[in-house]
């Protein structure tokens, strides 16, 4: 797994790396555009939404929301990616932060219409994901949604099949979503729907 130094070094070429994988329809970014479009279109159903983006990177998704009048807070652990995104969104509230530590103190009293995250939460292990998602749910306004677009699978055997097909490039230090297992872990806490958009990616819509 890349640490924040690695992501800083990767920042300038990150979008091109994603593009090559997405256009080739291969792990890890197959379905990337459709995943971002799905989240964008969901947020756009509400005017001037308060949005928190977890791991916004270079701002590919968040910039489009910003340009459409939504209020943006964001956290990312790469200072270089934050610099790139801040130029695109000068009035957005962007902070450097590692989600291993939950949310920063500056956001603890805030609530959002949407909390979005794309290709970030797989850096947390399964237990950490559930703990963090529970925290994020407490920061949603009534009727708000948590939208997670990531490397994700409906069932464990789909993940294992993808791993076997991509052993040379598979990152064993990343922890990908299995929708059935996440739903079971959050049962009784929230409603969790999974929209499979490629052989290795999709969007989870989580509502408290």
TrEMBL record:
The keyword Transferase applies. SUPFAM superfamilies: S-adenosyl-L-methionine-dependent methyltransferases. GO terms for molecular function: transferase activity. Residues 51-144 form the Methyltransferase domain. The keyword Transferase applies. Gene3D superfamilies: Vaccinia Virus protein VP39. Keywords: Transferase. PANTHER family: TRANS-ACONITATE 2-METHYLTRANSFERASE-RELATED (PTHR43861). This is Methyltransferase domain-containing protein. It comes from Jeotgalibacillus malaysiensis.
